[in-house]
């Protein structure tokens, strides 16, 4: 929706729509930005620190910088969410890199090397994956 360069770095925003039970972002944290999640429709399952919670339509959650987090549509529900990173980070190029990775035009090493550029550091969170996989058939 809005990348950081359009707001002089104060905020970047995006809208994400997920099918029923779909995974969103894998566990990660940011060092420079707090992240706001607003659930516009459906239900969102979120890992925030050591807690996994479900947020319904109209609800929100702020994840402070350095806190590991992940999200996905709740089991049995789709979700449409709005995300704001404050201060903003250039996210559009990050998503272009993800697309190139998925389509074989970028390597995993390039993706790992870009973590600091995009302030997105992945972490291991077995409790998140155990919860997500418990509801899959």
UniProtKB/TrEMBL annotation:
> Entry's SUPFAM superfamilies?
RmlC-like cupins
- Stored InterPro entries: Cupin_2, QDO-like, RmlC-like_jellyroll, RmlC_Cupin_sf
Pfam families xrefs? Cupin_2
Where is each Cupin type-2 domain found? 15-77
Highest rank taxon of the organism: Bacteria
The protein, known as: Cupin domain-containing protein
